[in-house]
Amino acid sequence: MSLHCFFGLELSEVGLQYIPPIPKHSNLVITHAAVTAVVPPPNEAEHHHKNKNNNHSKKENVYSPIALCVQGDNITDRITVGTLDPQNGITYLPLQLIFSSAVTFTLETRNNNNNNQNKSVFYPTVHLTGYYETEEEENEDEMDEEMFENFQNNKNKNNDDDEDLDEDEPMIMSRGKNVGYSENKKRPRK
Questions:
Q1: What are the sequence ranges of the domains in the chain?
Q2: 159 by DSSP, 3-state: which?
Q3: Is the pTM of this model over 0.85?
Q4: Domain at 2-134, CATH from 2.60.210.10, 2.30.30.30, 1.10.3720.10, 2.60.120.340
Q5: 99 forms bridges with which residues in the sheet?
Q6: pLDDT along the chain (190 residues), means of 10
Q7: What DSSP letter does each residue of 70-98 carry, written as one string?
């Protein structure tokens, strides 16, 4: 597999399904999920506190916990990957999720109330990041074997000329050919 390109997706609404594109013959690798901010924008927080008494704590300004869920193309159950909880310092999730077919991401809340009846609760936007992997055109095993054989052939050819050299002596190689010796040791004179 080889790295193809960066992937990023913003999940901003609770309950909305996000389906990232996965190119043919590729895997989507998700490496991180992170909240974009720990506190709501000032206008949302001010609006939130106009309806309350002035004896509110700092923690009331912090976003509420939100769970990242995933559901595969042929799977009926939704799986919770993790919960981001800025109020308790959990602002990112290191991940290693690999998908080769369609997948759906959603954000869920503790009360699963998607119609926002409680206007005083704010949920963060979540960013998913990762990359796409694509299949190599050539078979990597065949290429590795060919490179090893070329190395062995060149090594055997060079051993005839350098019988009196120390086996551990570092040599400078270029495209499988001996082009010199490192500066640490000088080549013995004959």
A1: 2-134, 140-181
A2: helix
A3: no
A4: 2.60.120.340
A5: 28
A6: 82 93 91 89 53 46 88 88 92 94 92 56 91 73 62 60 51 46 49
A7: EEETT--S-EEEEEEBGGGTB-EEEEEEE
